[in-house]
């Protein structure tokens, strides 16, 4: 066997491939973590060699940059065919060199069909599978999908992708927490008032109704990415950063994570954007967008309060929120500390609590602390210490692909965790389906519904 990996992208004519996967591959191949990759894209759509070459070259930003990147570019090809058929899958394996990695950049229902077809084939040694979110549509379907996958490859060769785990700031949280003396002693309910994780986008639907209208903000963001961010913030220190220890700590903390007070009605809110203005441009109401089924009542803004029932976190609210069509981008973790138990007599002024703000994008970190004022030194004021983290060499997808090519599932979601994340949000999904939580509205380009407490 050679050291070559063949990356077979199923659904290579789609948005994910062009916008995220190929640029991620390029960033990896141009870095010093690059590997020898043969690239095969496949899909039912026709693509001439020139068209495919154009797509890949654009993603590689014209300049191939490194010998590995040049080699991948030169050998890359598109093989047209239906990935759900046994014949086409066999042809793809025959065209591969070395170890194949099959990346499912497909709608989830189609991925399931491909997995069934793979079960009928004598598979190449070492085959790795990479699957995108959403992984199943509830706990039971995720369990069934896991069972189907395990019939064809072992768990360590299944990469359930969550590119948030490849984001520099999320990874940095591990370094920040466990490689400093400063934070870990205060990282608990005695010192922390609340943890908020925001992922607000200015963008609206942008023509993605086919996928988004069935998912909504809760499933698109909170059930997947934001629960992973919560896990990295709330987990205990792993004894090592590897696929066993890190993922065990993530699994352990998520097993202790629940909708606050088991009361989804009091602990969740949902809303959908109405017509509004964003950056001076009129934006139609979500319900008027092409492909939206108004009966579904899909939320474009979701907020859920969770609790982590461990000794470290008992009583601390973890509030996760994500919205589309908001007035400004806000992608951050905000940790608010408790006020000091008592101020010495004579210290006056700002008593707002200390905060740690970790921006997911762009990568910055800000510690908000109380300091002496510039006038009367005993009049307190707030100051911020900010750090801009170095620009990561790899994009989040580059990081994800690096793990897959190096046969290291540390940053991929373990099967039991994929199931658990559905179980955590199930009470909210049920309450929303039963209309026990009203669907509020907000104007596109606003901060959310007017009567939502800030
Ligand atoms: P698309 O809807 O663009 O579909 C990808 C490709 O799937 C299509 O180009 C199509 O290729 C193929 N396909 C569609 N229907 C069928 C079918 N019936 N049989 C066989 N192939 C089919 O998806 P995206 O690229 O947007 O996303 C892919 C996956 O990644 C999804 O699971 C999504 O949830 C996930 N994801 C996407 C993100 C994004 O920003 N796009 C972000 C994070 C995750 P063809 O017609 O050529 O066969």
TrEMBL record:
EC number: 1.1.1.49
Molecular function GO terms recorded: glucose-6-phosphate dehydrogenase activity; NADP binding
Residues at which NADP(+) binds: 44, 133
Keywords per UniProt: Carbohydrate metabolism, Glucose metabolism, NADP, Oxidoreductase
Active-site residues from the entry: 225
Cited InterPro entries: G6P_DH, G6P_DH_C, G6P_DH_NAD-bd, NAD(P)-bd_dom_sf
GO-annotated cellular components: cytosol
One Gene Ontology term from the biological process aspect of the record: glucose metabolic process
Record-listed substrate binding positions: 163, 201, 220, 324
Catalytic activity: D-glucose 6-phosphate + NADP(+) = 6-phospho-D-glucono-1,5-lactone + NADPH + H(+)
Pathway per the UniProt entry: Carbohydrate degradation; pentose phosphate pathway; D-ribulose 5-phosphate from D-glucose 6-phosphate (oxidative stage): step 1/3
Residues of the Glucose-6-phosphate dehydrogenase NAD-binding domain: 8-172
Residues of the Glucose-6-phosphate dehydrogenase C-terminal domain: 176-451
Family, per entry: Belongs to the glucose-6-phosphate dehydrogenase family.
HAMAP family: G6PD
Cross-referenced PANTHER family: GLUCOSE-6-PHOSPHATE 1-DEHYDROGENASE (PTHR23429:SF0), GLUCOSE-6-PHOSPHATE 1-DEHYDROGENASE G6PD (PTHR23429)
General function of this protein: Catalyzes the oxidation of glucose 6-phosphate to 6-phosphogluconolactone.
UniProt-recorded name of the protein: Glucose-6-phosphate 1-dehydrogenase
Source organism of the structure: Frigoribacterium faeni
């Amino acid at each position: 066997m050679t050291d070559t990996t063949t990356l077979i992208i199923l659904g290579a004519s789609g948005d994910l491939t062009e916008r995220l996967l190929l640029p991620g591959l390029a960033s990896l191949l141009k870095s010093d973590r690059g590997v020898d990759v043969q690239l095969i894209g496949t899909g039912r759509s026709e693509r001439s060699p020139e068209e495919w070459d154009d797509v890949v070259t654009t993603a590689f930003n014209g300049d191939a940059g490194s010998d590995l990147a040049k080699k991948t570019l030169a050998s890359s090809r598109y093989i047209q065919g239906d990935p759900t058929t046994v014949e086409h899958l066999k042809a793809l394996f025959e065209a591969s060199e070395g170890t194949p990695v099959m990346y499912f950049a497909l709608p989830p229902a189609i991925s399931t069909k491909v997995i069934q077809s793979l079960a009928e084939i004598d598979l190449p040694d070492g085959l790795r599978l990479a699957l995108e979110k959403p992984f199943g549509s509830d706990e039971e379907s995720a369990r069934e999908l896991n069972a189907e996958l395990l019939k064809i490859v072992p768990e360590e060769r299944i990469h359930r992708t969550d590119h948030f785990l490849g984001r520099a700031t999320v990874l940095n949280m591990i370094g920040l927490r466990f490689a400093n003396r400063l934070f870990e002693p205060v990282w608990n309910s005695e010192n922390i008032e609340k943890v908020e994780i925001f992922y607000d986008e200015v963008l609206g639907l942008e023509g993605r109704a086919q996928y988004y209208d069935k998912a909504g903000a809760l499933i698109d963001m909170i059930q997947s990415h934001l629960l992973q961010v919560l896990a990295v913030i709330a987990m205990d220190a792993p004894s090592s950063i590897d696929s066993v220890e890190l993922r065990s700590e993530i699994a352990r903390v998520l097993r202790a994570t629940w909708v606050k007070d088991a009361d989804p009605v009091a602990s969740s809110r949902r809303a959908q954007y109405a017509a509004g203005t964003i950056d001076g441009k009129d934006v139609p109401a979500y319900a008027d967008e092409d492909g939206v089924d108004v009966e579904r009542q899909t939320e474009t803004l979701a907020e859920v309060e969770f609790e982590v029932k461990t000794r470290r976190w008992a009583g601390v609210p973890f509030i996760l929120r994500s919205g589309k069509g908001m007035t400004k981008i806000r992608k951050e973790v905000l940790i608010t500390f408790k006020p000091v138990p008592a101020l010495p007599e004579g210290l006056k002024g700002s008593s707002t609590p200390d905060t740690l703000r970790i921006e997911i994008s762009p990568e910055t970190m800000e510690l908000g602390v109380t300091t002496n004022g510039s006038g009367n030194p005993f009049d307190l004021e707030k100051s911020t210490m900010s750090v801009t983290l170095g620009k990561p060499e790899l994009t989040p997808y580059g990081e994800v692909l690096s793990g897959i090519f190096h046969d290291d599932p540390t940053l991929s979601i373990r099967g039991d965790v994929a199931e658990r994340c559905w179980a955590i949000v199930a009470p909210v999904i049920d309450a929303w389906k039963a209309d026990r939580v009203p669907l509020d509205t907000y104007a596109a380009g606003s901060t959310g519904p007017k009567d939502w407490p800030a």
